[in-house]
Amino acid sequence: MPYAIEMKHIRKEFPGIIANDDINLQVEEGEIHALFGENGAGKSTLMNVLFGLYQPDEGEIYVHGKKVRIADPNDANRLGIGMVHQHFMLVEKFTVAENIILGREPTIHGRLDMTKAVKIVSDLSEKYGLDVDPMKKVEDITVGMQQRVEILKTLYRGSDILIFDEPTAVLTPLEIKELIDIMKRLVKEGKSIILITHKLKEIFEACDRCTVIRRGKIIGTIGIGETNPSDLADMMVGRKVNVRINNAPYEPKEKVLEIRDLTVLDSRKVKAVNQLNLTVHGGEIMGIAGVDGNGQTELVEAIAGLRKVKEGAIEINGNDVTNHKTRKIIEAGLGYIPEDRQKHGLVLDFSIGENMVLQTYYKKPYAFAGVLNNKVISKKAKQLIHEYDVRTPGEKTLARSLSGGNQQKVIVAREVDRSPQLLVAAQPTRGLDIGAIEFIHGKLLEEKEKGKAVLLVSFELDEILHLSDRIAVIFEGRIIDIVNPKETNENELGLLMAGRKKEEAQA
Amino acid sequence: MSILEVLAIIVPSTLLTAAPLIFTALGGVFSERSGVVNIGLEGLMSVGAFTAAIATLFLEHAGFGNASPWIAILIAAVAGAIFSLIHAVVSITFRADQTVSGVALNFLAAGLTIFLVKLIYNGNGQTPYIAHNINKISVPVLSNIPIIGPIFFQQVTYTSYLAIFVSFVVWYIIFKTSFGLRLRSVGEHPAAADTLGINVTRMRYIGVMLSGFFGGIGGAVYLVTITANYNVSTIAGQGFLALAAMVFGKWHPIGAMGASLFFGFAQALSITSQQIPYIDRLPSVVMMVAPYVLTLIVLTGFVGRAEPPKADGIPYIKGQR
Amino acid sequence: MSKMLSKIQWMKLLVPIVSVVLGLLCGAIIMVAAGYNPLLAYGSIVQSIFLQPYYTGETIRAMIPLVLSGLAVAFAFRTGLFNIGVEGQLLVGWFASVAAAIVFEGLPKVILLPLCIIAGGAAGGIWGFLPGFLKARFKVHEVISTIMMNYIALYTTSYLIKNFLYTEGERTPTIPSAASLASPTLANLTQGSRLHWGFIVAILAAVAMWFILWKTTRGYELRAVGFSPDASKYAGMNVSRNIILSMTISGIFAGLSGAMEGLGTYQYMMINSTFTGIGFNGIAVALLGLNTPVGVILAGALFAGLQTGGLTMQSVAGVPVELIQIVIALIIFFVGSSYVIKWALLRFSMRGHKN
């Protein structure tokens, strides 16, 4: 039997980088095939080639044994290839039904036949057990339902080969379980699935075979029954991973951050942080574990003065900073590595030098009487570039032209160099390669050893488990438990993150 | 003067001044719904008015008589659509800043039309007057209805009714057809549309060219019903007023029509205020600036937030989010 | 890699030059198509502004408001804002300077002249402050709000002149000489052109823009907010205040531009039924000048020369002066399409390498 998908010798080059290099991929009919690799390994590029969003520079694609050319998503759709995008491709102001039929609308003489559309959507949703409300606007439904809409979009187009691009990043553990059930059901109905992921757990729970991709090249394809998680991890990284583990003694000092009964609203005026209490001491790394969307972002923004505190109090070093201006909070001792480094951490069109003084430019010695001292700024930048090993031609280079890892190093250098008592790191390693991740982890541990308080927010359980002295689990805006990383495991954390109390979790 | 008499002056005048605004604002709705900001409406109206003047004069000469201005409107629509292609190419294909391109479009239209007028009429900066205007008429039968007749059906032009009718057609197209759904999807989330096989570039070209088409009609209607000749000050701010109407109407065809009628009303008041008790004591400038001040107020959100399409003004580059 | 970077830098400078050449070329094609002689036309422009002192003087005179308007647009651009409202800010600045001159007639020149200039700048500043405030407070897009402000300015100033400062000829009375920037010396030097001392104001404004944006902490903030409001906010800057400040300073430049017309070129203000066009030209000047002070001066000189020389062109070569407007529009299109020009230049230079 021919393969559902066969990609041969695919090569795709972008200016300065070979994203895919002589890639061969075979997906069998009716299997769930994992495409496994680090961030930036080239998985998404390969799938965008398959979906017609990119044209390969070289190589051939076969679908059900027939050689094809996929010039655009239309071609992919015609060939039965559908993609569930990582960042949902949904028009928020449209209803669920409108989103699903878009591009292939049922009409009567050019007029949209919405009655028929709703019926089609309901039927599909029933057939595959994908619960959605066709009449609701996408902006009003949950993330989980949005993903089901994405899946229905592909099914509506009759796709029999489905690509899932990192589908679990935004889901709760329970939703992840549901998604895996859905995928298995789809396979039973005769679909073939490619699952792009960098999470081992999902592969072992869902997949039949796995292809490992590293730095644009295929390392190998292996049946899930013939391997184990640690071997697969080594395949992905290409060497023994040097995991930095927090094994410095835990000697908490005085309170640095104290949060009492904090309530914060999100952009839709819903309580995102709800009566939250948390204390972080000097000399400790406090990990915040939780599924995305449980109030982490709002919590961190409230600490940084970027979001209004509705109720409660935040103290840094014993000073009340509740609803103070961001600048005052920074001056009170906050260092902040924001989640979105390109949008929030850097002014991309500023030089590295200008970025290095983003919070201190108005202070001596960088300025005097409102006039900048560019010489001192340059000197400082050069020193930090050297100390933090930022790979760049010089401090005049624009931040935009740096790689993700080096951009993050600029931010870390700037924040750590100010020597803040409290360092808040939100997803500090997201999307970075292993080398940069190790570097950043090392810096966080150094800060702890210097006696600083570190608040680490991450969706990666491994990161939380390896680095934290204590782990606070956040669920629906509250800290529902604080656990000792040495006495817990992923399973227990997973249950807590889904909102079950410890007693229940153990029961 | 009785209320009825006042209305019989103001309403027909409102309908007359609103018609060009309605057409042009509808054009703006098409363009911006597809995600292309179009502050070149002023220029599109200029091209429409210029073309209508030349075409009417030519058709009159060729013996088309009363049909001349109507055919001229169609020709002006086509001219507007062609002219708007420049904006489409520069802002969609060449990815120029859409506002910059719109500014340049206005410049080009103002310069080119007068240049051509001078070229055609031996250095004279204005065209002759057209002989066959679209005249104000009284609608048979309907104008005899008491009260309503004198207000709505006397001293009006058919173009005003047409404008209102077309607003509903545009509403139907944008919200009830698959074309409209696609157009809006491209203006809201072009990447999503792209993954569903909708050609973003093509849809945006269509959106912009429809704005040219309707802007051309708007300018032409202004010429054949109001000014009757084309010179440098024929279109002086009408396009920007239409832009304001589109924003005031919250990027909605019916809203744009309502706003245009309202602005027409304000203009009518400022012109006729001297004849109307109480209002004649207000400085005329109040009525002149009212549309702009009110649009600003609407934009501040005191009267419900006016939100443009999400991807309005953002060039679409494949593979970028 | 660094070679490639320097190539991109170099190309950035090439884009405006290529755009001007293409714009003039298209203008020439239009002239040929219309039956005119482009060489004669362009020749007459060059000849008049370089060889006839009167036109040289008029060119520099025309540069003054153009440069100030260009600075206004460029300053806002640097902060990520598109100020289409220069036209309106210019009108209120013009009006305020003339009104101040007439109201305070009798004050000595050392007081009256600076007062009138400040009045013009302040009025423009207020007219810029409002859209800035609306943007910062209500997220009203400045493109739309400044367009609205333009019309409010146009009708309001006309109304005010008509009702409070009217004199024969649809204009205000002439300002007292104590408020005037006009200079018999400069006029004599240029065979009676209207060149006035305002050029000093324009140069000072260009220096001020450079100093504020690149030498002060305030300018650092303004640029940071312009490039990335989010990152600026995260770094503890007050984004709203910077948006308002930027629009206000931009408005001041525009208001000064109007004051130069009122106190220098005309010595009065007429009732305008349409816009002066200077403010919109300022957009072209800023774009072509890559939003830098020096660039704005150069681009201002080019457009001033084209406009002044355009009059000679009309009389010598018979080409309608509107051709200049067409050329300017085309130049804006080309500069705006810099992405394509860069791409074409890159292809061109790469091919050159291979051969």
From TrEMBL, chain A:
Keywords: ATP-binding, Cell membrane, Membrane, Nucleotide-binding, Repeat, Translocase, Transport. One of its GO terms (cellular component) is plasma membrane. GO terms for molecular function: ATP binding; ATP hydrolysis activity. It is a peripheral membrane protein. Residues 5-240, 257-501 form the ABC transporter domain. Gene3D superfamilies: P-loop containing nucleotide triphosphate hydrolases. It is found in: Cell membrane. Belongs to the ABC transporter superfamily. This is ABC transporter ATP-binding protein. It comes from Sporolactobacillus putidus.
TrEMBL record, chain B:
The keyword Cytoplasm does not apply. It is found in: Cell membrane. GO terms for cellular component: plasma membrane. Its main location: membrane. Keywords: Cell membrane, Membrane, Transmembrane, Transmembrane helix. It is a multi-pass membrane protein. The chain crosses the membrane at residues 7-30, 36-59, 71-94, 100-121, 158-175, 205-224, 285-304. It comes from the Bacteria. InterPro entries: ABC_transp_permease. One of its GO terms (molecular function) is transmembrane transporter activity. CDD domains: TM_PBP1_transp_TpRbsC_like. The keyword Aminoacyl-tRNA synthetase does not apply. This is ABC transporter permease protein YufQ. It comes from Sporolactobacillus putidus.
From TrEMBL, chain C:
It holds the Pfam family BPD_transp_2. It is found in: Cell membrane. Signal peptide: none annotated. The keyword Membrane applies. Keywords: Cell membrane, Membrane, Transmembrane, Transmembrane helix. The chain crosses the membrane at residues 59-77, 84-104, 110-130, 142-161, 195-214, 243-260, 266-289, 296-317, 323-345. One of its GO terms (cellular component) is plasma membrane. InterPro entries: ABC_transp_permease. One of its GO terms (molecular function) is transmembrane transporter activity. CDD domains: TM_PBP1_transp_TpRbsC_like (cd06580). It is a multi-pass membrane protein. The keyword Cell membrane applies. This is ABC transporter permease. It comes from Sporolactobacillus putidus.
